Amino acid sequence: MMNHIDLSSVLRQTLACDLYSNLVTRSTGAAVRFQIEQLLSASRDRGIALTVIDFSQVSMIDFSCADEVVAKLLMRYSSDDPPQDAYFLFRGVTDDHWDAIEAVLERHGLALALEDDDCVRVVGVLSEDERRAWDAAYRLGRSSVADVALEMATDPEEARDALDALCRRRLMMRIDDEYVAVGSPRD
Amino acid sequence: MTHVITVPPSLDDHSFEQVLEQVAPLPADAKLLVDARHARWASPYGLTALLTLAQTRDERPTLAVPELDETLSYWSRAAFFQHAESVYDLTGTYPKRREAGESNVLLEITPIAKSDDVHTVVGRVQERAQQIIKTELKLEAKAIIGFAMTLSEVCQNIIEHAGRGGWVAVQSYRWTKRLGRRVVVIAVCDAGLGFRRSLESAPGHLPSSRWDDAAALEEAVIRGVSRFRDRSRGQGLAGARNYVGRWNGKLSVRSGTARISIVPSWDDDVPLAEGLAPFPGAQVQVIIPEAVAAGGSPER
């Protein structure tokens, strides 16, 4: 199942005001993240949730707000004790948002799946093996370790380590014994 | 007894030190007459710092307003008198209502006390900043968003750390004397806790052998340390520092008895000034200059 969260709508509900479309201040960011968590929690019983976080209608985001809305959200759901199984795909991120998002990803060593035109790519801090494994799994769609290893031209153990690391980081879903990259066209 | 504090004719971040040097020896409850009659020009820093000065006094001070019509008109357009009436007793003749009209004031003096104020400030500045940064400063479109982000972060510094409200103002002007180019300037001043006391309130804070206002500013501005344990904190000023570095700008942060600056090649300020006259709170100034073409003159 897929959730779609339009951040500008969440922002308007948070501020109770239609005037601004800027994600600024730490307290606003914390309130927006809380709303996102509430929406995720409401869909908890419907299985693994892929949630699209949509920036399309957001004019700008500052560092403090990006830290709350992006970094803390990713950290909470990729922790050892996440509130639920959740995966995120970021949509509508432009150059106007990227400086702040990139800064918080680097600060916390995080990465995220970003929808860019017709494709999805991972951005942020990843090891070379993680990046190659994600790219391979994305190209293949739902696939086994052996398939990904072949695509990466590496041995299966190395591929499995990278895929499992990506699963812990919520950039890859594991379904039965197969892997699906977040945002993969065949997931 | 009333002590007369003379405001220099040109009031900016440097000349404001002359004001503070006159105030420093006086007790907080001394009655002040701040004499701005001969002031001819003031930067956004000068105006917001004047308001902040009044907030630091136990006894409500008096301000003698500028005599020059042109100066009165500018201070009025910057909303100085509107706010000064709340912290000073004003003497002299000045426009009772804020003058409107075309102006290089991007954001008139605006109080910052809560998160909503930052939303208002950023929203109001965005449209005008776009025009000024692109057409007057000749900077890339990317500089516009960074400007709004920087404005947001330096304003949040008040909300997160000052413990009381402060003031922000944004203006663009041709800085003939020092630079010969147009600049856009953000000034954010508060009379709150200041950096040293804010960092001292961190859980488990252990002051180093050299712990003073200058050390606190180095920790906060250069190393991104915050009073919060949360590793996420301290990114705001780091972001502002990166922004001014990218666009050849200048960032200065004054707190207590010290001022730290990220100094670009066009300026001859010192990176760290210590032993200044004490002044509570924090005073931040960001200057972004017009782009220079490869030949050295402003781009045309």
Overall radius of gyration of chain A? 16 Å
Q: What number of structural domains do the residues of chain A give?
A: 2
- Overall mean confidence score, pLDDT of chain B: 89
Number of helices of chain B: 9
What's this model, at a glance?
Chain A has 187 residues and is α/β, with parallel strands linked by helices. Chain A has helices at 7-15, 26-42, 63-77, 95-108, 128-140, 145-152, 156-168, and strands spanning 2-6, 22-23, 49-54, 60-61, 86-91, 111-116, 119-124, 172-175, 178-181.
Question: Can you characterise this structure?
Answer:
The complex is a heterodimer of chains A (187) and B (300). By secondary structure, chain A is an alpha/beta fold. Chain A has two domains: 2-125, Transcription Regulator spoIIAA (2-Layer Sandwich); 127-187, Arc Repressor Mutant, subunit A. In chain A, 48% of the residues lie in helices and 22% in strands. Chain A has seven helices and nine strands. Chain A has helices at residues 7-15, 26-42, 63-77, 95-108, 128-140, 145-152, 156-168; strands spanning 2-6, 22-23, 49-54, 60-61, 86-91, 111-116, 119-124, 172-175, 178-181. In chain A, the strands form three sheets. In chain A, strands 1-3-5-6-7 form a five-stranded mixed sheet, sandwiched between helices. The longest helix of chain A is centred in the N-terminal third of the chain and has 17 residues, at 26-42. Chain B has 300 residues and is an alpha/beta fold. Helix content of chain B is 36%, strand content 24%. Chain B has nine helices and 13 strands. In chain B, a hairpin with a 1-residue loop joins β10 and β11 (258-262). In chain B, α2 runs parallel beside α4, α5 packs antiparallel against α6 (142-162) and α6 packs antiparallel against α9 (235-246). Chain B starts with a strand and ends in an 11-residue tail after the last strand. The mean pLDDT of chain B is 89. The A-B interface holds A 15, 17, 19-20, 22, 24-28, 59-64, 67-68, 71-72, 95-96, 99-100, 103-104, 107-108 and B 115-116, 118-120, 122-123, 126, 142, 145-146, 148-149, 152-153, 156, 159-160, 231-232, 235-236, 238-239, 242.
